[in-house]
Structure formats: C-alpha cells, structure tokens
Amino acid sequence: MVPIRIFKMPKTLQNYNRHYRLGNSLNFDKSLNSLVGILIICSLVVLAEADGYDEDKDALLKLKSAITEDPLGFTSNWNPKDRDPCSWYGVTCDSQSGRVTALNLSSNSNGSCSLLSLQATGGNFSLLFPYLHESDGYKNYSSKLRGKLSLAIGGLTQLRVLLLGFNGFSGELPLEIGKLYLLEILDLGFNAFYGNIPLTLQNCTSLRVINLSWNRFNGTIPSFFGQFPDLQVVSLSFNMLSGSIPEELGENCRSLEHIHMAGNLFSGSIPKNLGNCSKLRSLILSSNMLQDDIPSSLGKLVNLQALDLSRNFLSGVLPPELGNCKQLEVLVLKHNHGTLYSRDNGSLPIQPVVEGEGDFNFFDGGLPDSITRLPNLRLFWAPNMNLVGVFPQNWGSCPKLEMLNLAQNFFTGQIPTSLRNCRSLYFLDVSSNNLTGPLPEEISISCMVVFNVSQNFLSEDIPRISHRECPKMPGALSPLHVDMLGFYASFFYSKAIMSIAPLSSPSDGLVVLHDLSSNRFTGPCSSIFN
C-alpha cells in the first residue's frame, strides 16, 4: 500500500479544497493538473482568436490591394494599423468571437435597381426583385469598384455573407472561394467575372442564395447545385452558360423558392422534376434554347407566382395542369418580334429589339380553360404562338388581370363580355386574330391605356369612348409587384399596332393608345368620342 502523506494546505488553497473536496495530495495533484490544463486551453483559445483576427485582417487587406479602382472610397478606412477590422466599411463581425462574418461591398445603393437585394439580419434575409433600369448600376462603372477578387478571400473562414454586386470585378472566380465553408449568401451579380463556376464551390454546403447573374460565366451548371439542402435562390441569368439544366435541382433542392436562368445558352428540356420544388415562387427560363414541351409537372408548383418561358424553342400543347398554380400572377410564354414597349415612370418608351433575338415558342391547340381561371393572374403574355380555337370566354375568373396579350394567334369567336369583371385591366392586345362580332360595351374600353383589336373581323358600331367614365386613369405604369418581390419586370409590350390613334394625353403625360383599325366597323365616327 502506498502511504498518503498528509500536509497542511495554505489558506489560498483551502477554499479551493472546500469547493473541490480535496482530501489528500493525490486528489490535489489531479485537480491542480486539471486547473493547469484549463488555463492552457483558455490561453490557446485566446491565441487562436487573436490569430483569427490577424487572418481576417490580412485577408481583407489583400482583397483591398487587388482592387484597382475605388472611386467612392469604400476601402479608404481599411487601415492596417487598426487592431481589428470590425469598424471597416462593409465589414461585419460576430459580437462574441469578433471574426468577420459578412462583407458587403456592393455598389448598389439604390434598391430600385437591384436584381437581387439582400438583407441579412440575424441569419434571416428578405428578397427584393424590383424593376431594373438599364441606366442604373450595371452600365455605369464610373463609380464602381474594379479589380480582381483576390485569392485571399479564402482566408475569411467565418464568412457567411459575401455581397459584391454591381461593381466592375473581373477575372475568374478564385478556387479559394471553396474555403468559405460557412457561406450562406453569395451575391456577385452585375460584374464582369468570367470562366467556369469553380467546382470548389461545392464545399459551401450551407449556401442559401447564389447570385451570379449578369456576368460572363461560361461552361455548364455544376450538378452539385442540387446538393445544397438549404438552397433557396439560384440566379444565373445573363451569362454564357450552356448545356442542360441539371436534373439534380429538382431531385434534392426542395427548399428552392427562386430559379432565374434567363439569357443563357441552355438547351435540352425543362427538367420534369422541377415540379418537386413545392416552395418555388418564380421560375424564369426565358431567352435560352430550351426545347420540347412544357412539363405538366409544373402544375404541382402550387406556390408559383411568376413563370417566364419566352424566347425559347418550346412546342407541344400547353399543359392544362398550369391551372393548378392558383398563386400564379405572371405568366409569360412568348414575346413578339418588332419594336418593344417597356414600362418606365408613366410613359411608354420605345426600345429596339436586340438584333438576333427571337422567340420560337410555337404551341399546338388552344389555350386551356384552366389557365383563364387563375384567380391571382395579373399578366398573361402569349402573342404569336399559333394558338387556335374559340377565344376564351372565362377571363372574368381573373379579377386581378391587368395586362392580356394574345395578339397574332388564330382565335375565332367574340371578345367576351366577362372581361368587365377585370376592373384593373389597362392593357389588352388581341390584334391579328379572327375575332368577329361587336365590341362589348361592358369592358370599359375607354379606361384602358392600351387597347388593340386591329386586324380582326369585328363589326357593328364602335361603342362610345369617354375617359370621363373612368373612376381613375392610372397615372403611371408602375412595375408589377408579385408578393414581396417586384419581380424583374422586364415585361415588354408588343408593337403590333399598325395605326395608333392617341385618344388622350392626361395632365400626367400618360399617352393612351387605342387601335381599332382593319376591321368591319360601321356607323358614324362622330359617335365614338365624347
């Protein structure tokens, strides 16, 4: 038996003994060793945090050195003499660890011109997709940051939010971005990055938002985009990406709310399993080279609010299942050739179509009755799509309808009186069809900003047109707002109008355009206007 030596503890350790019940030297030695271990660990933690401060600071200073132009002085207070970078412009640190968790050097100071504007507060963010004016941010590089994204970005290992949108950053996206394992929001939209989307991005498994829109990325969409379990937004619009849309997006990303891939070179079919994305609110696939039919599985997207499939090579029959998307507010299936109108501050400016742009979506059959019964529909755009049959008579089931374009199809029958229930309707274009019969007096022609029924076979007298009957003529054609998002609102209006007669120009300057030409109307013209 090993003898235990009894000794008298100093008073400074007696309290320690009472707390830890030290009764002998063996227990005391063990406890003392534990205390020393704890002190060593604490010291290491402090040193590690200090190293973290230095690592973040060093990474940020290297990022600054790679910026060649900073006209607004975003990084002017990034002083290497500062103890930590948490007070620097655009830098957010964790209140406990002091590590850099967010970097916001976006040059988008005006929310009205942001394609993807994010507010990351306490791990939450809201999405805004307002109307984008060409004159805003994207084309005005004079006040934007320029340069490369330094490899040192990988040193910000605690980064959760990276916002660099609306600048002039160029070059390839560094592979080191894959070291940001905690990254949740990546917004690099409206820059000049090029090359492939780096495969190392698959390491950022916490991503919720990926916005790479309006850059020059090429290659294909990596299949690992379907491996991010929390992914809510993927915006890749207006790049030079090609190949097919990965099936994995619909197989694994059940949290997806927004898919924006317009203006690329995607080919193949629209993945049928996108119908599995039950939370999807907007699906924007316009201006690509997508083929085949519209999957009927999209009818399972009961939360869908905006669908734009225009400017592709789609064909087949319009799926009646789209009528199951009861939340749908915006449905754009095709754009017209020719000069386009765009809404902007209460006027209808004319913008030329980009040379070479076309829309080759041509569908068989008619317009499913279910689509004309969508209770929240506000905009339906389907001109020149080869649609046939009797003109749908159930538009009165769309009481919120504001804009309806079915021009240049092959509809027969009459313009329905049920349109009188669409009290917000201010744009109606059904020109170049085979419509017959009279103009219904019930639909308040005079209250519409654009009314085009030209090149049909309409007959009888033209109803009296008087703006005095309108309770309120719209003072401005404001962008559509779909729930929280103002949507990207690049909705252009067809100029199929052959001879426009301006009937009114109210004091607010809004021009009212009505075209009733090339029909078989009778009666005196003097009875038309009041």
TrEMBL record:
One of its GO terms (molecular function) is ATP binding. GO terms for cellular component: plasma membrane. Keywords: ATP-binding, Cell membrane, Glycoprotein, Leucine-rich repeat, Membrane, Nucleotide-binding, Repeat, Signal, Transmembrane, Transmembrane helix. Residues 54-94 form the Leucine-rich repeat-containing N-terminal plant-type domain. It is a single-pass type I membrane protein. Its main location: membrane. PANTHER family: LRR RECEPTOR-LIKE SERINE/THREONINE-PROTEIN KINASE-RELATED, RECEPTOR PROTEIN-TYROSINE KINASE CEPR1. This is Leucine-rich repeat-containing N-terminal plant-type domain-containing protein. The lineage of its organism: Eukaryota, Viridiplantae, Streptophyta, Embryophyta, Tracheophyta.
